[in-house]
Amino acid sequence: MKKIAVIGSNMVDLITYVERMPGQGETLEAPRFAMGCGGKGANQAAAAALLGAPVLMLSKVGDDLFADNTLANFKRLGIDTEYVTRVPGTCSGVAPIFVQPDSHNSILIVKGANACLAPADIDAARTPLRECALIVLQLEIELATVYYAIDFAHSHGIPVLLNPAPAVAGLSRAHLAKLDFLVPNETELALISGQPVTGVESARIAARGLVAEGVGHVIVTLGAQGALYVGREGEFQVPGLGVAAVDTTGAGDAFIGCFARHWSDSGDLRAAITEAVAYSACSVTGLGTQSSYPDASRFARFKHTFATPVALGEQQ
Ligand code: RIB
Q: Please, what are the domains in the chain?
C-alpha cells in the first residue's frame, strides 16, 4: 500500500463534558474532564493509521510537554514523524472542547506551533511526498501553506483532498478547482458555495456548483444522515447507521481518515465512503477524539454487530 500524506495540524484536546454552557460571568461546575490527542490533521492521520495505512505526517509541535506526548502518540500509531518538527519558544496547539449531554461539541483552537508549518516544509519533504497515493489537507494551518500544498500535489499529479475545516470564507476558486476531493460538512459547504445548505437536497445543489467549477469529487458529511457524493462518478447518498451518539468530537476526521485509507488502497469511491460513514458512526459511540477511533479489528466487530439484526426476543 502506498503512503497517505497528511499535511496539517495537531492539538492537545482539553475536553470538558458539561451539563450546559456557562453564561457570561457565571462559574459552573462540570462533571468530567479528559485530555487527549487531537487536531484535525493528526486525527485524520490517526484514523488512517489505525486502519492499517502507512501515513506520512507533516506537522509542527512546540517545545513543551504537549509536544512530547503528541510525538509519542504518532510513533505509537506507526505514523512516519520524520517531518514533524519542533518550533523553539512556541507552545503546541491546544483545543479546549466542551461536549454537551446531547453529544454535540463547541471547540476553540489555539494554533500555536501549527501556524509555523510553511511552504518550505513541503519543499523539504518533496521526495517522499511524490511517492504518496494521496495528500490530505485541512485548514488549521496557514492558508498559504495549504495553497502551496495543493499546487505541489496538482503539479506532480498526486491526488489531493481538502477538508475545509474549520470553515473559512473566501477560499481561492483557482485552488478549489485543483482538488480531486473536497470533503466539507454542511456549514463549510454553505460558506464555500455561497448558498444556503439545510439538508440533502440543498447540499446536492451546492455541491453540483463546485463540481461545475472544477472540483473533482465533493463528499458532504451529513452527521447522522451519512454522506452525500456528487462528482464524476454520478451522485449518491450513503445513509447513516442510526447509532446512539455520546460524543461527536472528531467524527468528521474519522470519516476522512477512513475514506483516505480505503480510497487510496482500492480506488473504489462508493466502498470507501460506505466504510467512512460506518467508521465515523463507530467513533461517536465513544468518548473523546482519537480515543474513540477503533483499530481495524474493533471496527470489524462494530460492523458485524451493526449488520446483525437483533432478534425480537433479544431486544432490551
Ligand atoms: O475535529 C475535531 C478536532 O478539532 C479536535 O481534535 C480539535 O483538536 C480540533 O482541531
A: 4-20+32-315 (3.40.1190.20)
